[in-house]
Amino acid sequence: MHLPIILSTTGILLILFSPAMLAPALVAWLYGEQTIPTFAFAFAITLAAGVVLWLPGRGRPKPRDADGFLITALAYLGLGLFGAIPFYLDGDGALSVSEAAFESLSGLTTTGATVLSGLDSAPKSILFYRQFLQWFGGMGIIVLAVAVLPMLGIGGMQLYRAESPGPVKDNKLTPRITETAKALWLLYLGLTLACALAYWLAGMSLFDAICHSFSTVAIGGFSTHDASIGYFNSVAIEWVAILFMVLSGINFGLHFTAWRSKNLAHYARDREVRLYLLMLAAVAFITAALLSQHPDAVASPIRHGLFQAVSITTTAGFTTTDFSLWPSVAPILLMFAAFGGGCAGSTAGGMKMIRVLLVYRQCVREIKRLVHPLGVFPLKIGGNRVPNRVADAIWAFCIAYVLIFVALSCLVMGLSGLDFVTAFSAVAACLNNLGPGLGEVAQNYRGLPDSVTWLLMLAMLLGRLEIFTLLVLFTRAFWRR
Hints:
By secondary structure, the protein is mainly α. Helices cover 63% and strands 1% of the residues.
């Protein structure tokens, strides 16, 4: 454990994050708003704190791989807390410290749960800042850092392994981690620009198009309007959102491979992508079928069913209507679909489809073993044998995921007195980085007790950092190194 090095690295991340306060200040200047001092103060405080943390550890050796776990957790926690400053200062303290931190961390983890209302009349600089937080957190603040930190003499591989989602974390697209990070960010930026252009051509204003491209590619779900995508009431805009939500839910490494080789066959050959698309189609079909049986519930069952199925399953969280009021089991089906989420290496939340696929394959293998006790049935994906170490890790992850979900749901109910549906959906929405829930949290999360708010923030971090990256910090072995 090299605490000065860890704090110094965290300080550099804060320094890198501080300019994020200047972009909304520019928006405030363009629209003649009074929030420029708010963002200027937040920038100064964040920059100063980063410098204070960085100075004691400058010039020291690089952090070790294991230090990346603590650096990653401190980065998200630190950026979430400093990112809350504009929310707390705006509106004369309309938000408490807990609520401001909730909004900030929800953005950085691309959860999309919000405590704000009245977005249609909110300052555009604040709206832009919310969206930008999601875009910044989408591909990972750590991936951004590994492209820059090596230039400052600080290694990045340990950060990449700690933050990168999915069961296999050591695969690099290029020989050097810096080149990998740059390749991912160029791809991420290109997809964002394409999304913004598509939204603009579909009928959004330039401001809305840019803001929604941030949250769509990040699969975050924040919107500049209370009614989310439903505000526009446009089939064209909904199709643009569906397209880019689906694309952003696919492994960005696979996008890069397909782009570099100029061969779309990579998508068709990938087992995880096939399962991901099959899951989206199945949930959309079932949802639309359920809505069709209740014609008074929604005007266009196929249109709304398709959009919400894609939005919730990919954990984006955009809405075209209040799906929590839908009849039958449709809302519960969508909430459970979010547990699967998108593909590993994407901006989506949830457990990731590769884990769902591997758990299914293992179940099939156990059934075969019952029929043929002496048979040997290796676990394979795409013709490649999956090591037992990976298989064991996936089972452990799934069990931990379920246990944490149950424990947090019980704690939320016990501390708040919320009904089961509200508590279950709030924890599920935050743990899966989804955003909208059911019951009392269908619209926003305002008014919850502070203890529940912090528990839900813990759920966001656990979901974003894929549980074990955070849980390892609570073990004695980690601190005894």
